[in-house]
Amino acid sequence: SSVRILNENRGRGSLGKLLHLGRLVGALDAVLDSNARVAPFRILLQVPGSQVYSAIACGATAEEINQHWEWLEQNLLHTLSVFDNKEDIVSFVKGKVKVRKLSYFHPFFQEEDPEKFREALVKFESRFNFPEAEKLITYYSCCCWKGKVPRQGWLYLSINHLCFYSFFLGKELKLIIPWVEVQKLERTSNVFMTDTVRVTTPNKERDFSTFLNITEAFRIMEQLADVTLRRLLDNEIFELDPGLQDPTQITKRDLEARAQNEFFRAFFRLPRKEKLHEVVDCSLWTPFSRCHTAGRMYTSDSYICFASKENGCCNVIIPLREVISIEKMEDTSLLPNPIIVSIRSKTAFQFIELKDRDTLVENLLQRLKEVNSTWVVIGMLREAMNIALQNGLGWKGPLQVI
């Protein structure tokens, strides 16, 4: 099995067999799906006793897949000997690889090449002839469907419009959809399209597919439609998003940060004013499973939160006002870059595998100090209010504490 290969056969011969198998799988996928974009090299993991293989890494070149294999050797092989059974080995490997894949292969948003963006901006301006104030946010290669026929082209997302341009076999297709006319945005699928963004306006439905990163494209579209709607209906939200008050100054990075903040607050059900500061891949010691659970730490103004990679497995919310100390522990091979967060109820949370641990701890300690200072002031106000009430003086202060 692949687990046995990782544990016992550490030579390049094992990798070679997996690489050839990856080529075969890629070739079959390409034959069966003409739109497939399959990496020709893969590293596979097989659960003992199962005929199912799971892809744990992929690469476009042998050099790239070798880098992933070297990462597995450096970060996994030397620790497998501490496990007593194969099930624990498989669980450990999957957890480590899941963190690696989500942070390396699938970042929340992809960075854009400045030179390519400038080229796209020139084409956008020449093809659609908008006023100079119409700012292009980002662009994507995709297909727009006309009935059962896909038209390959470019989707341009600007401050006020969703635009699409295609020129194929002498036929030009140009679409301009103002965000104010968008009634619904949704991801759908049918017989012809496996994953599609559907844009509904009062007059028509438009389907777009074959994005290289449909999740990112859909999130940016959601943000632009939402910002446009809120700009029309109310101004309350812009007190929390100063960068969105002036439409001409909105950037893709602003929308990314807004999307991340909204996801963070909604997922952990936090107050609307809570601002996300860091998102860090790590693992948390979970006593109920007697192991470290892979996930992500989210830090904000007043909270430290954790969500496991496996949905619903483990979610933690730690208010900073309950935290007594945040300490770095000794770095070891079994506990890399660990920190301990201790709270007033005599409970401690152990996080490991924290990238840039020193900076993270420094930022957390600074926020902890600010939160404690705020609660000291609140405590003094409460005490003054109680004294005033006991003496029958009444209280006219503005104190409101939840």
Any overview of this molecule?
The protein is α+β, with helices and mostly antiparallel strands and 402 residues long. It folds into three domains: 103 residues, no CATH class; 144 residues, Roll (PH-domain like); 104 residues, Pleckstrin-homology domain (PH domain)/Phosphotyrosine-binding domain (PTB) (PH-domain like, Roll), CATH 2.30.29.30. 36% of the residues lie in helices and 28% in strands. It is built from eight helices and 16 strands. The strands form three sheets. The chain has a seven-stranded antiparallel β-sheet with strand order 6-5-4-3-9-8-7. It has a seven-stranded antiparallel β-sheet with strand order 13-12-11-10-16-15-14. It is flat and about 75 Å long. The N terminus is likely disordered.
Short overview:
Helix content is 36%, strand content 28%. The protein is of the alpha+beta class and 402 residues long.
SSE inventory with pairings:
Layout: H1 2-7, H2 12-32, E1 41-46, E2 53-59, H3 62-75, H4 86-104, H5 114-128, E3 136-146, E4 149-158, E5 161-168, E6 171-178, E7 184-188, E8 196-200, E9 205-209, H6 214-233, H7 252-268, E10 276-286, E11 291-300, E12 303-308, E13 315-319, E14 323-328, E15 339-343, E16 348-352, H8 357-390
Percent helix among the residues? 25-40%
Number of domains: 3
Instruction: Tell me the CATH topology of the largest domain.
Output: PH-domain like
Report, as a whole number of angstroms, the end-to-end distance. 56 Å
What structural class do you assign from the helix and strand content?
Answer: alpha+beta
Task: Assign the CATH superfamily of the largest domain.
Answer: Pleckstrin-homology domain (PH domain)/Phosphotyrosine-binding domain (PTB)
CATH arch. level architecture of the largest domain: Roll
Number of beta strands:
16
Oligomer: single chain
Number of helices: 8
Overall pLDDT: 75
Q: CATH top level of the largest domain?
A: Mainly Beta
DSSP strand (E) fraction?
Answer: 25-35%
InterPro entries: GRAM, PH-like_dom_sf, TBC1D8_PH-GRAM1, TBC1D8_PH-GRAM2
